[in-house]
C-alpha cells in the first residue's frame, strides 16, 4: 500500500505551502510510475478553509483522515493571537491532533511549529520555524530548543521546517528516508527543484540578490559538480570563477548560504549515498568516484553527517540484488523489487 499522508489545512493557511506535500510526494514513484504515497488534504469538520490570501479552499476530508495517516503534515499557518497570548490550542484543534496515532510521523511546515509546541509535541526537542518568529517560539515555549539557523530538524517521529522552500527540502528528505536517494532525486527533477539541501544548511536570512549576475558562482558550482572525482581546492574554484579567494567565498556564501568547501563536501556525500543505494560498487571505488580519496575519509564524512558507516547506510536502505549484467561489468545498477524493505 502507498504511504498515507494527511495534510491538515487550518484557517489562515498559506496556499503555496499547502500544496507542497502533495506536489513532492505525488512525484515519488516506482519505476513503472506507481505512486509511493497517497496524499489527502483535510480540515476541521471538513469545512472550507479561509486562506491567508483573498480566497477560500474546499477540501474533501475532515480530521478523521488523521487517524489512518502514516504521516501528518501541518501546512503553514501563522500563529493566531489566541495562541501567541496563551500558548494553547483551541479545543477542536487539540481534539483533532489527539486523533493521530502514537507512531504516526508528524511534520510542521514553517510557523505551524507553534501548533506542535502548543500540543506539547516539541517539549525537550530541537525544532525550527521561520527565522523571523524563532525568538517568539522560544519565548512562548521555553521547553523547546529552537534553532533559527537551519532548514529543517528531524527528530525521528517529529520534524519541523523553516519557511517557504524549506518545506520542499523536508518533504524530499522524507522521500529519501523512505525510499532512497534515487527516488528522491527523480521526484526533485520532476518538481524542478534542488535534489538535496541538508537540514543543517542555513536559512537564507536577508541575503540580497547579487547585482552583478555575470559574477555569479553558479557556473563554478556546475563545473565542480562535473568533477566530483577530482581533487578541487578552494583556490581552484576561485580561479575558475575569475575571482580572488576572498571575493569568491563571500559571493558563494551570499548565494548558497554556506561555504564553498562545505557545499562541495555535501555534494560529494550526496553522490556517495546515491551510489551506495543504486550500485554494487565497493566502498573504496565509491570513495574515489566521489572525490573523498580513500574509504577512511568517506567513513569520516558519513559518521559526521549521518551518524553511521557507508556499509551500515547501504544495509539500512536495503539495497536490492543487482540486475543481471555481463560478467565483470563494474557498478551494475540495482532496481527495487516489490516487497523489498525500505
From TrEMBL:
Residues 320-342 are annotated as: Disordered. Residues 218-316 form the HTH araC/xylS-type domain. Signal peptide: none annotated. GO terms for molecular function: DNA-binding transcription factor activity; sequence-specific DNA binding. Keywords: Transcription, Transcription regulation. It holds the Pfam family HTH_18. It comes from the Bacteria. Coiled coil: none annotated. InterPro entries: Class_I_gatase-like (IPR029062), DJ-1/PfpI (IPR002818), Homeodomain-like_sf (IPR009057), HTH_AraC (IPR018060), INH-QAR (IPR052158). This is Helix-turn-helix domain-containing protein. The lineage of its organism: Bacteria, Bacillati, Actinomycetota, Actinomycetes, Kitasatosporales.
Amino acid at each position: 500500500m502507498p504511504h498515507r499522508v494527511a495534510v491538515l489545512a487550518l484557517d489562515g493557511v498559506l496556499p503555496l505551502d499547502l500544496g507542497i506535500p502533495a506536489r513532492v510526494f505525488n512525484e515519488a514513484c516506482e519505476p513503472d510510475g506507481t505512486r509511493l504515497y497517497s496524499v489527502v488534504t483535510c480540515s476541521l469538520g471538513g469545512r472550507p478553509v479561509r486562506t491567508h490570501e483573498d480566497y477560500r479552499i474546499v477540501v474533501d476530508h475532515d480530521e478523521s483522515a488523521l487517524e489512518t495517516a502514516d504521516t501528518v503534515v501541518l501546512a503553514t499557518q501563522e500563529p493566531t493571537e489566541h495562541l501567541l497570548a496563551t500558548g494553547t490550542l483551541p479545543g477542536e484543534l487539540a481534539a483533532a491532533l489527539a486523533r493521530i496515532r502514537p507512531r504516526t510521523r508528524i511534520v510542521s511546515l514553517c510557523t505551524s511549529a507553534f501548533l506542535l509546541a502548543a500540543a506539547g509535541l516539541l517539549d525537550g526537542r530541537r525544532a525550527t520555524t521561520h527565522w523571523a518568529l524563532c525568538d517568539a517560539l522560544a519565548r512562548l515555549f521555553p521547553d523547546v530548543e529552537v534553532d533559527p539557523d537551519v532548514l529543517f530538524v528531524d527528530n525521528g517521529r517529529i520534524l519541523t521546517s523553516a519557511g517557504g522552500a524549506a518545506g520542499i527540502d523536508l518533504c524530499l528528505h522524507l522521500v529519501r528516508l523512505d525510499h532512497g536517494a534515487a527516488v528522491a532525486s527523480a521526484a526533485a527533477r520532476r518538481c524542478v527543484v534542488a535534489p538535496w539541501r541538508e537540514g543543517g544548511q542555513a536559512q537564507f536570512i536577508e541575503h540580497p540578490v547579487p547585482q552583478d549576475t555575470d559574477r555569479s558562482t553558479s557556473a563554478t558550482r556546475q563545473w565542480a559538480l562535473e568533477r566530483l572525482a577530482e581533487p578541487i581546492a578552494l583556490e581552484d574554484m576561485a580561479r575558475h570563477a575569475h575571482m580572488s579567494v576572498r571575493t569568491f567565498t563571500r559571493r558563494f556564501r551570499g548565494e548558497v548560504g554556506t561555504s564553498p568547501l562545505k557545499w562541495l563536501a555535501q555534494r560529494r556525500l550526496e553522490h556517495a549515498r546515491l551510489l551506495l543505494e543504486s550500485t554494487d560498487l565497493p566502498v573504496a571505488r565509491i570513495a574515489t568516484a566521489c572525490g573523498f580519496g580513500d574509504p577512511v575519509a568517506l567513513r569520516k564524512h558519513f559518521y559526521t553527517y549521518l551518524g553511521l558507516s557507508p556499509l551500515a547506510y547501504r544495509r539500512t536502505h536495503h539495497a536490492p540484488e543487482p540486475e543481471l549484467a555481463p560478467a565483470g561489468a563494474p557498478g551494475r545498477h540495482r532496481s527495487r523489487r516489490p516487497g523489498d524493505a525500505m
